[in-house]
Amino acid sequence: MNPQKEISYDRLVSRTKYYQEKSLQLEKSLLFAEEKIEQLEQELKTALENDDLQKELEEKVRELENYRIEVQQLNEKLSQSNLSAMTKKIQSFEELLGTIEQEMNEKEKQVESYKNKIRSLERRMKVQNNAPEEISSEQVEKENLQLTAYFNHSLICKNESSYVIHGSLHMTNYGLEQLDNPLICFRFQPIDYTNLKGKISSLEQSNLPEDKQDSLQWVYIENEWAKEARERGEIWVAPMHDLFIPPNHTVSLTDFQIPIKKQFEDSIVVEAFIYFKEQEYRARAMNQIALNF
């Protein structure tokens, strides 16, 4: 046998072994990457239960980006070694990365939704904590504190037995100090006509995102005390967000409606009382809504 041919054959065997070893190394690298991806998926699920979720998500995104770069590098090596089977595995790996990214985007949206719900719940708890437990609606005078409130209203007759009162309550601070977070009590006499609608939301409706809410949003106070108050002809409302009335400023609860179903000859009176819990100050509206049938 020709010695030169023997050398060429040995080189061929050696080169074949080299590429086989190289292929095994690449397969090991891919297996390690796949195991790392599974580990990242598990860590992402666990991260959803942690308070620092957002930071962890950003960290996982960076890790995934590093693995994408590593995959691209592996893909280049595989193309150089012309191993078609390994190329298919890389493509499958990239598809898996795409799926993980899509799931991460969905999780981020869920996290943001949960954050909005938490902010809304915090606001609801604040309203509930500011609700009175047991107070009188009688006016209380205090030095440096003076609030003047009055109704503007009109009556619309739908038919002989159906009416709607459209009104607004305006509150002006004529005192020397700022008034904080007014609570408004509407008292109805007789109590059969206790009903108030309009631009007043329930606490559940206040879950809307902040960009879709009115800048001044009023909500019904909803707790056991408020339920008992309604039974005696009172409806209490409060601002959803902190509301401050500086001296010589006016805030209003506008466009409320009081539907009335006339059943017999009667008279209806609606009064308003404004209560500031932090300053322990109460005031009565200067006028009232009064109807006689």
How would you briefly describe this protein structure?
This protein is an alpha+beta fold. It has 4 helices and 13 strands.
Structure description:
- This protein has 293 residues and is an alpha+beta fold.
- The protein has 2 domains: 3-130, no CATH class; 147-292, Immunoglobulins (Immunoglobulin-like).
- 44% of the residues lie in helices and 27% in strands.
- Strands 4, 6, 7, 8, 11, 12 and 13 form a 7-stranded mixed beta sheet that branches.
- A hairpin with a 2-residue loop joins strand 1 and strand 2.
- The radius of gyration is 35 Å and the shape is rod-shaped.
- It starts with a helix and ends with a strand.
- The mean pLDDT is 78.
The helix-and-strand class reads: alpha+beta
The span between the termini is: 127 Å
Number of helices: 4
CA radius of gyration is 35 Å
User: In percent terms, what proportion of residues is strand?
Assistant: 25-35%
Major sheet description: 7 strands, mixed
Mean pLDDT over all positions: 78
The CATH architecture assignment of the largest domain turns out to be Sandwich
Principal-axis shape: rod-shaped
Residue share in helix: 40-55%
User: How many domains?
Assistant: 2
Low-confidence sequence ranges:
none
Classified in CATH, the superfamily of the largest domain is: Immunoglobulins
If you consult CATH, what is the topology of the largest domain? Immunoglobulin-like
Secondary-structure element series? HHHEEEEEEEHEEEEEE
CATH class of the largest domain: Mainly Beta
Strand elements, count: 13
